[in-house]
Amino acid sequence: MNLMLAMVVDPWILIFSLVTVLVTVGMGFWSAKKSKTASDFFVAGRSVSVGWNASAISGEYLSAASFMGVAGMVMKNGYDALWYPVCYACGYLFLLLFIAGPLRRFGAYTIPDFAEGRYDSPVFRKIAVIFVLFIGFFYTMPQMKGAGTTLSYIFPGLDYKVGVIVVGAVITINVALGGMKGITLVQAVQYWIKMFAICVPVFVLMSVYGFYGSQISVNGPELPAKDKLLNVAPKDTDGPELLRRAEATHRVEKWQVYPERKALPEKAPRDDAWLNPFGSLTTKAVKTASAAITPDASQFKQVPTKPGVTPEEVGLFDLGKMDAKQALAIYGELTGRTLLPRDNPHQEKLDQKLDGQLTQWKDLAPLNLGLQSNAKKPTTGTEFKTLVDEAFGKLGLSFVPVEENFFRIVKTSEMEQYKAALTKQVQQEWFDNHQRPYSLLYTYSLIIALVCGTAGLPHILVRFYTNPDGVAAKRTTMWVMILIGVFYVFPPVFGVLGRNLLPELYSAVGAKGTDKVVLELPSLLNQKYPGLGSILSGITCAGAFAAFMSTFSGLLVSMTGALAHDVYGRILKPQSTAEQRLKAFKVCAVIIGIIAILLGTQVEKFDINFMVGQAFAIAAASYFPLLFLSTWWRGMTMKGAACGMLGGGLLALGGISLTSFSDLKLLPLEHYWQANPLIRILCEQPAIWAVPLAIGLMIIISKLTSKDVPKDIRMKMLVLHAPEKLGLKQEYIQDQQMH
């Protein structure tokens, strides 16, 4: 097996990836030697400059979701998915305006430190620690998906789970050795690796396959099913033979040769998804609910006679001379229904799908049904209907009811095809009627989750404690917005190029799906320039490693710090020495790393960005309300903050867990979600109700327990908001030197 893998591994891709890993581990070991105090491990000695910290925060924030997931999501959903990168960046505006400066002035190691210090409550620290772990584990899962996808691409045939285990183990060891100071340098460097890896391949690909405008024009109305010109137009001197051969295999317009675009699978987004950015995101809930819709069973039964027609009702008909058109007119009177003509818009699409075989008068009018009358006994209405049914049956035709007032004629041999087409039409009509309101609800909820969740991610917030003061924290936030804003220009371009050049990814799932478009796309250049594609693929793989390694490192430090510092150092053993806490840090890093790896092996089927959106929703419903209100409202009490965090955060976590376990077939809720798509959406992306719930609970409970407001709240608010020049800044946690 190993020999077979070695034979197909691209050496350039392997080299670039190994160099990235070795540089990361090497810098971690080097920085570990400089970590002398507990402060070095937890907040990098509070001495990181604005430039380095902005690069490190950007490197940590630009995860696998940003490097791989945004491109994959844009390719999969069109420009509706641009909400992801835009909201990722906008979240830092909230941080800049409301949280970054005050949080740093308080001077803690972790967010649970802030929670305890703000409310003088060790109990509240325990609640805050729980959500550090919840958010962290949900955020590690997409990083593990990125790791498994990348290694599966580098080593074709390698199992996804093996990739997750290998990468997770390397990062866990690196964090256990270096702590926060070890990963600050690593993450700062990795930001620039990711920027180089995302932008250089884009420019090369566009120079070969057409620049951005030409790629977008592929989806325009002027060329709905063709690619933009990729070949040079034939010269006049090439002669008529070249033109004749070109016309035989290509569409020729104004001497422009347009090769046929690769066929797009059904899963590919429609062209208008690329021409109208920032639309509503279609959710899985609507798709699964529409797929469960079936036509009324009566639509496939015989056409009934209309109410009020008795079996004794008679008519005098010259049946021998009656043609099909006359018979159908009387049939319609007896049933109270109208035959759907070919041009009726109600069923036109269905008729077209069956090649116009249904209800065409020109096929029926000349036919003599061969009906025989009985002069002695007039034909009753029900007898006449039976005769017509039998006569058309002999011709291979059947009547089927359509809704309440119509009927249609279908070839008996095509009845199953008709049923399938009608079912698909009913499903599409339901989807068209319900898709927009449900999708808008999901999109609004996602926007709230991403914007507010960014301001509530503990592994990002802890980085502001590494700045020397609050002013530096604000300047850092401004630079982070610039750095990540520039980065997010490039992944959508990969999505557009992937849609035109790698449509086969739409048919794949898991590690082989659209999430790997960033890795796969540069390799196409090998067809034109052998070797160049491998080099660029190696660069993008290096960027992918930098993406999930930097973010996973930050998450591990955040979660490990919560256990080692908040649980062990502040709850279990408050008298522990600095050396004991550092040992606890390393042990906790290994334990959390193992749990994260196990979770990562189970999420191959989920999109990277989808999982990140859920992690952000939990952060938005728990930490964001806590930090925002605790920083700006002096009337907030510990009980109010705790009720809000538990109410909003746990309910959001519960809803997300239900949908995730259902998708993994661990809970039998599939039929329930199909019948209740609205509930599915509110559980899958709960920010739209969980964030207001958390804020409302915090305000109401705080008002009811207003006597419990900390007595020194005025001083605390002054520390949070007073300019550094007044000298009121304090370090809530004091450094301890290791021996």
Automatic annotation (TrEMBL):
Annotated GO CC locations: plasma membrane
Bilayer-crossing regions: 12-30, 81-103, 123-140, 160-179, 191-212, 441-465, 477-497, 535-563, 584-602, 608-629, 641-661, 687-706
Localisation: Cell membrane
PROSITE patterns recorded: NA_SOLUT_SYMP_3 (PS50283)
GO biological process: plasma membrane acetate transport
Keyword Ribosomal protein assigned: no
UniProt keyword terms in alphabetical order: Cell membrane, Membrane, Symport, Transmembrane, Transmembrane helix, Transport
Domain of life: Bacteria
Keyword Ligase assigned: no
Molecular functions (GO terms): acetate transmembrane transporter activity; symporter activity
Membrane topology note: Multi-pass membrane protein
Any Pfam family: SSF
Family per similarity comment: Belongs to the sodium:solute symporter (SSF) (TC 2.A.21) family.
UniProt-recorded name of the protein: Na+/solute symporter
Gene source species: Pedosphaera parvula (strain Ellin514)
